[in-house]
Design brief:
By secondary structure, the chain is α+β, with helices and mostly antiparallel strands. It has 3 helices and 13 strands. Strands 1, 2, 3, 4, 7, 9, 11, 12 and 13 form a 9-stranded mixed beta sheet that branches. Strands 5-6-10-8 form a 4-stranded antiparallel beta sheet, with no helix packed on it. Strand 1 (about 45-55) and strand 2 (about 60-65) form a beta hairpin. The N and C termini lie far apart (about 75 Å).
């Protein structure tokens, strides 16, 4: 319809103009197919998380995204040089992307060791918990406390059926856990360094009696303080050395996750 008014005059247009426009079309098509899709003004977004085993001291830095681009970013990171980069699918965190991880620089999100002492020496004190089993029942009580954090998570190896956080508000219109169960409980406090007391109940398996089955999982605390350089050196390094066409943001609620296993 836009070209319709040109109808009476189109017979006067020589073949040079459509030929020129066709060549422009071929050129722009080839460029669009072969040019690198990202630039400093149109950057590729990658997702960052650092996980720390507070019992063994092992830490892993991970970037989430399309594997080809993530590997290109990691190739420019000095601490990842010479390491074998493993990429796996983590649908429970980010759908349709790969997680590529390597051993990174230790975080310093909890300042509980003197300056100059490796932060790994203080890992065990970042998170403390106590879990006690209720005799004869498939339930237990967790008391969880983390340093310099207001957010922690209970993650279970199999779904639970109910829980209650002492002192928390509840909405009686909704169940605490859906019918299919839940494999995690996210905890948050308004105040720093406050402890949570959580009662957890898990279902009785077929052919089992209450109290015969235990539960395993992880107690995890989260840290996202990135206001000063040096608190999360692995993230500082990525920002300093990553290509200009990339941008990094956090993959989950926390930039750093510290965890300890439990079995009850």
């Amino acid at each position: 319809m836009l070209l319709l008014p040109l109808g009476p005059f189109v017979h006067r247009i020589t073949y040079h103009i459509p030929s020129f426009l066709f060549l422009i079309f071929i050129g722009t098509l080839i460029y669009s197919l072969v040019a690198f899709p990202f630039s400093a003004n149109n950057r590729y977004k990658a997702y960052f998380i650092q996980t720390v085993d507070l019992e063994t001291g092992q830490n892993q830095v991970a970037l989430f995204g399309l594997e080809d681009y993530i590997r290109s970013i990691i190739a420019s990171i000095p601490s990842a040089a010479g390491q074998s980069i493993d990429c796996v699918s983590r649908e429970e965190i980010r759908t349709g992307v790969q997680q590529c991880s390597w051993e990174g620089i230790a975080p310093r999100v909890v300042p509980n060791v003197p300056s100059g002492v490796p932060p790994e020496k203080g890992y065990v004190d970042w998170l403390s918990y106590n879990v006690s089993r209720i005799p004869g029942q498939n339930s237990a009580r967790f008391v969880i406390s983390g340093q310099n954090t207001r957010a922690c998570v209970l993650r279970f190896d199999r779904p639970i059926k109910d829980f209650n956080v002492l002192g928390s508000s509840k909405d009686d219109r909704f169940d605490a856990v859906p019918e299919v169960g839940s494999d995690q409980i996210r905890l948050w406090h308004r105040d720093w360094d406050q402890a949570w007391t959580v009662d957890v109940e898990w279902p009785v398996g077929d052919g089992k009696q209450p109290g015969e089955e235990g539960m395993e999982g992880k107690v995890v605390c989260l840290w996202s303080d990135d206001n000063f350089e040096g608190v999360i050196p692995a993230l500082d390094e990525i920002r300093r050395f990553a290509p200009a066409w990339s941008a990094v943001t956090k993959a989950q609620d926390g930039l750093v996750e510290g965890s300890k296993r439990f079995m009850v």
